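Q: My labmate handed me this sequence with no annotations at all. I'd like to see what the chain might look like in three dimensions before we decide whether it's worth expressing. Could you predict it?
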Amino acid sequence: MDKQIPLKVVVGGAMYESAPKVYSREVSGRFQRLRLVAVWVLLGLYYLMPWLQWNGRQAVLFDLPARKFYVLGLSFWPQDFVYLALLLIIAAFALFFFTAIAGRLWCGYACPQTVWTEVFIAMERWCEGDRGRQMKLDAAPWSRAKFLRKGAKHTLWVVFALWTGFTFVGFFTPIRVLAGEVATLTLGGWEWFWILFYALATWGNAGFLREQVCTYMCPYARFQGAMFDRDTLVIAYDAERGEPRGARRKGTPSVLERAKSDPLPASPSLREGEEQNVLGDCIDCTICVQVCPTGIDIRNGLQYECIACGACIDACDGVMDRMGYPRGLVRYATLNTLEHRQPRMLRPRVVVYALILLALCAGFAWSVLTRTPLIVDVLRDRNALYRVLADGAVENVYTFKIVNKDQQPHRYRIRVHSATPLALVGADTIEVAAEGVASVPVALHATAGSVRGMLAIEFEVQALDAEMKRSQKSRFFGPP
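A: Here is what I predict for the chain of 480 residues:
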């Protein structure tokens, strides 16, 4: 079994001490560009999806009063709850799979808390300036300039949060109707409540709590260690190459350069008697700490507060470039790689997660693509098992409940299959409106003496204008 790795907990204050505000420094680099792409794509999907139309209807709409979900032309009813359960199971195993391979990728790039916090931080920088200016502004006494900057920031935050809350409610109430109600101030009480509630949650979590949500409120931060092992890609500081830290002039040879010209081990920590005279590649500039959105020092080892955003990698790579050193002092790596051991990509837990995830996704896709938007339920008459008519024929009465979940009306034909011929009395066709439910009484007749006791039968309901068919087993009773 794969060995689990502990997460290092760095304690930096007294119990019940309020957490200081984290002023994250702006950074540029490949991982920051990936995060910005993720922010634009995910927020674009969130804010634009409710406005898209599909066959004359909102593309994504969760109509709770009608108990119907519409997703890109598909309609899901309460009977389709199994699909939601399957989606949640797929999401859980996807989280296990990707965490086992590459750590907290979800947290760093796709988590709503991370995505909205990025937007709020960008607004804060636009109004208050960079990290240094923000710190000076907060430390300065209140003045007209400070009031205007803070007021502008919170105004942007509130407007964006209200837009977020409005969009959230637009997934449950047709957003075009909702926009008209907002314009005319005719919103209902629950709509007002959820818009303001979601706006307040966005404003508080992304504007004030930020990293505290990841550190104290998110359960994933607590149990991620159970899914990590020594072959999981994590953001790590190469202490062997970087220690001991210290300032030096630009142009000083790096550890790797010294290793090429010196037969002694590359790491200064392995050189007996030279620890105090030779520095590692870390110049102790602390920029990796300044850019961290959770305020940790990655050089202290893997910590549960790390959301794997890659900001420290971009910052350190920039410093290495300016010093003329190779990149990668802080990088995505496995613990086995840092200890010069061969990493294993295909390991038991990864293979098991992948197979289960593949089976679940294939089953979900097949089930959705082959689902029939037709439900048939047959109920027998509870008043009597059978009735004997004047001519000796035996009659059984049934009630058909036909549910047409399609967004188009359909005409259906009812048939019966049995070992003994039975006659269906009454109309054998019925038209059901789009997303409608119809109850149809049906009587079956058997000639005198043809049925004794119980006879197994099967009803078939088939659409005349589409490829939809359902069968329902039942029973026909006659005299003993």
